[in-house]
Amino acid sequence: MAEQEPGPLALVRDDASRATDNVPSDPQVGQIRMARPDRGGEVQVLVVEVHDDHVHAMLCGEECERATDTDAVLEPQTTGLPRPILIHGDVSGSILKRRLGRSIGQQLGRNLVERIALRGRGLDFNSTDLGRGSAVTDESDPRWGWKLEKQRQLRLLRARASELGWEIHKLSPREE
């Protein structure tokens, strides 16, 4: 048995170098990437913006039949993936680059990504090539709870303000 040397432990898997061999060093807009949350398995995200040490990305999934009016459903001929993919236009956030894994499928064009982002904000109603679900109108729609769960899932992945170097200041009480 090999003798261990004193000092800090490096928590790195033996296969870490091989696991990152096919990961491009810099994410690009339009890539669908695997991302590692704090807990649970990897999830798919669409990179919408790239910044110095983080990206802004939208959560993706395969539950296309549950799409809402703010989601986009892309077919395999668009993504290069074996099945259609649901992009949650209303479930997005900043993710540290170090949480991103490999890119899957083919890179989407910038124009397409911009239209998906507009749909997520409720500003694109005319794109017929993005697929569309119906609106969630109230809490009785089963997709209401499902969307809340997707927001919780993103919360495990999203960068904290302190990780992004942002300062948070307490607001002063309003004078009336």
Please explain how this structure is put together.
This protein starts with 15 loop residues before the first helix and ends in a 21-residue tail after the last helix. It has a 6-stranded antiparallel β-sheet. It has 176 residues and is α+β, with helices and mostly antiparallel strands. Mean pLDDT is 81; it is low at 7-23. The chain has 4 helices and 6 strands. The protein is 19% helix and 23% strand. The protein has a single domain (27-155), classed as SH3 type barrels, CATH 2.30.30. The longest helix has 14 residues, at 142-155.
Write the layout of secondary structure elements.
Blueprint: H1 16-19, E1 32-35, E2 43-50, E3 54-61, E4 72-74, H2 76-79, E5 85-96, E6 100-104, H3 110-120, H4 142-155
Antiparallel strand pairs: 1-2, 1-6, 2-3, 3-5, 4-5
Summarize the structure.
With 176 residues, this protein is of the alpha+beta class.
Keywords:
176 residues, SH3 type barrels, 4 helices, 6 strands, 19% helix, globular
List SSEs in N-to-C order: HEEEEHEEHH
What's the end-to-end separation, in Å?
A: 73 Å
If strands are numbered along the chain, what order do they take across the biggest sheet?
Answer: 4-5-3-2-1-6
Helical amount? 10-25%
CATH architectural type:
Roll
What is the fold-level CATH name, i.e. the topology?
Answer: SH3 type barrels
**Secondary structural class:** alpha+beta
Rounded mean pLDDT score? 81
- Number of DSSP strand runs: 6
Uncertain segments: 7-23
Number of helices: 4
Q: Percent of residues in beta strands?
A: 15-25%
Number of self-contained structural domains: 1
| Shape assignment | globular
Top-tier CATH class:
Mainly Beta
